[in-house]
Amino acid sequence: MDRRQTIPAHLRLTLQDFLDRFPNDDACLEFLKEKRYPNGVAHCEKCGVVRKHHRVTGRPAYACDSCGSMISPMAGTIFEHSSTSLRKWFYAMYLMGSTRCGISAKQIQRETGVTYKTAWRMFRQIRSLLSEPDMQLEGTTVEMDETYVGGRRHRKYQARRGRPSPNDPSKTCVVGAVERKGRVFACVADDATKATFHGVARERILPESVIFTDEHHSYTGLKEMGYTHQRIQHSQGVYVLGNVHTNTIEGFWSLVKRGIAGVYHNVSRKYLQTYLDEYSFRYNRRDQGNLIFTSILERVCERAV
Q1: What is the chain's mean pLDDT, rounded?
Q2: CA 196 from centre of chain
Q3: Rounded to an integer, what distance in angstroms lies between the CA atom of residue 55 and that of residue 46?
Q4: Would residue 34 be called left, alpha or beta, if left means φ above 0 and alpha means ψ between -120 and 50 degrees?
Q5: pLDDT of residue 266
Q6: Smallest Cα–Cα separation from 284: which of 143, 171, 70, 132?
Q7: Stretch 274-288: mean pLDDT, rounded?
Q8: Angstrom distance (rounded) from CA 303 to CA 281
Q9: What is the DSSP string of 92-126?
Q10: Residue 184: C-alpha distances to residues 122, 136, 178, 250 (Å)
Q11: What is the Cα–Cα distance from 212 to 157, expressed in whole angstroms?
């Protein structure tokens, strides 16, 4: 076993580092202010020009130094109208970015003292920031695969080769694609038909890329769409043939399923996409060490309305 620290020094953000950097709500608010309004300079709607703003004592707001009109760095963010401490929000983001398998709302409830309802809402709000709807995979070699997420499979819906039946109500179809040594995209699919899979490929994978899949019939026709399509015959017990395999995307599925089963235990179809966004966000930034937390904070400011 390798007992050495695996995260390079410049990518580490330990719990003590977090506590030193954000000791209270004021420090968190100041961080947000600098991200959204560097040096406190922002547009004043009342004056109609850009002016310096100063912190208002006792309030999470900054006032224009000319007219006194106030702005809040939390306005338009997931923190707006929340009575929960800003530092607890930051801590929840830190934990979400520091784990590989995810962290439950119950754990946040135990560590921060908020109610379970509040903890669950916090995580749902944070996950809403992690989607990447415009992502397009740019690697020249892409693996594509589908999996099924849900409860225990009903015997009456058991199909050959272990694939769940499309009629199995306990399972939700998920399709994904991953660049080898690159990024991943995963989404909930309405079904496992050729139209659905081809639509994902057309939207997410660059033309003329090499796509590796298994022998599922819904991948037939990718070659006619301009892709170089190579298959691995899992039904014949073949899982790697030269560079033809789908082990990368299957490794991601394993991470998602083990996380859901071990941490969340059960995820409904209604919220499954947000959990896929969470796992994809961390996977796509796995080379950032503990600094994934700062990437989540940047999303807060980017998505502010």
Answers
A1: 89
A2: 22
A3: 17
A4: alpha
A5: 86
A6: 132
A7: 94
A8: 15
A9: HHHHHHH-SS---HHHHHHHH---HHHHHHHHHHH
A10: 25, 10, 4, 11
A11: 28
Q: Determine if residue 110 is left, alpha or beta; phi over 0 gives left, psi from -120 to 50 gives alpha, anything else beta.
A: alpha
Specify the pTM. 0.89
Percent of all residues in the chain with a pLDDT value above 70, rounded to a whole number: 92
Instruction: Evaluate whether residue 78 is within a structural domain.
Output: no
Rounded CA gap, 185 and 204, in Å?
A: 8
R_g of the chain, CA atoms, integer Å: 23
CATH classification at residue 244: 3.30.420
Tell me the three state secondary structure of residue 20.
helix
Distance, in Å, from the CA atom of 262 to the CA atom of 239, rounded to the nearest integer, reads 27
DSSP secondary structure letter of residue 186: E
CA distance 20 to 266: 36
In a domain, 224, yes or no: yes
pLDDT value at position 150? 78
In a domain, 38, yes or no: no
Phi, psi of 273, deg, nearest 5: -60, -35
Alpha-carbon span 69 to 181, nearest angstrom:
50
* Selection from 80-89, 132-141, 236-245 with the highest mean pLDDT: 80-89
Across the range 162-189, mean pLDDT stands at: 82
Reported in sequence order, the residue ranges of 151-286 that DSSP labels E, i.e. its strands, are 171-179, 184-188, 210-213, 228-231
Q: How many independent structural domains does the chain possess?
A: 1
- Give me the domain span that covers residue 191: 141-267
